[in-house]
Amino acid sequence: MLDPAQLAALAAVHRRGSFDLAAAELHVTASAVSQRIKALEETAGTLLIRRGQPSTATEAGLRLIRHHDEVVLLERRLATDLPGLSDRAATLRIAVNADSLATWVIPALAATSNFLFDLVIDDQDVSQDWLRRGEVVAVVTAHQGPLQGCDTLPLGALRYRATASADYIRCWLPDGPTASALARAPALTFSDKDRLQDIWVDRQTGGRGRRGAFPSHRMASTHAFVDACLYGLGWGLNPEPLVAAHLRDGRLIDLSPRMPLDVPLHWQFTRLAAPALSPLTGAIRQAAAQRLIGPAVPPKNPDPRPALSPGS
Q1: pTM (two decimals)
Q2: Distances (CA, A) of 260 to 160, 161, 216, 312
Q3: In the prediction, which pLDDT does 209 show?
Q4: What domains appear along the chain, each with residue ranges and CATH number?
Q5: Three-state DSSP class for 21?
Q6: At what angle do helices 59-81 and 4-16 cross, to 10 degrees?
Q7: Alpha carbon distance 172, 118 (integer Å)
Q8: How far apart are the C-alpha atoms of 109 and 261, rounded to whole Å?
């Protein structure tokens, strides 16, 4: 039998990156955390934590952390039926892209009780990797799967608009977003993982623009993107829900109104955690139906595990 306290110590060190921070989270000493992990490594017969700055789990350690997370959620599900077992909220670790967090995910989290959320913020094109490694139990992702041991639900598409201020357009794009103008006009990029501007430029120019061929400011903040466009710092792809009022009032201008960029999103989660995740899954689908572009309208009593194709 694996010791739950030892597994909790392993998960805390990996996620907080240090023994001291893990100890603070678990309300024990750093020495106690070290002893628990050493004992677990002796039981497992292998190294589970790479000590360093930060300390991170090995592949074997990640497998045990995933086991720990699934056990915690299963116990949380049991406590729902037998309230006397526990009155503590379970911590739920999920990965979500920053734009979804800024536009529609928070209402879903707020509608779900008895969970503490530990959010990993990463691009929708790579968030699935967190689930594949076993570091989270669910993700908002652009990938529909299949992923072994997981189910996937389509949520709809988050619509983006290429926007800029009127002053910026007069300075940099007086003849519109042509290939030659976009090659000189400063853009906004969230991070090296952000491909939205590249995709839009490629579509806008009919493939005449080279990937990453435009100058760009980098800023990892959804709301800073909007502010930067308002102040004329650059042009960028912004989620439509965040800029609709600015476009309507003329504070921002859509560079190509007939060419929005729709990014399909999916809710992907481990099958073992599906029963415990059921309330959150229902809330995620409801929130997505209100803010995203099709396709799914949740049923009155959403089933977290509908019939899906094998392996999805």
Answers
A1: 0.78
A2: 6, 5, 20, 29
A3: 46
A4: 1-85 (1.10.10.10), 158-262 (3.40.190.10)
A5: helix
A6: 120
A7: 41
A8: 26
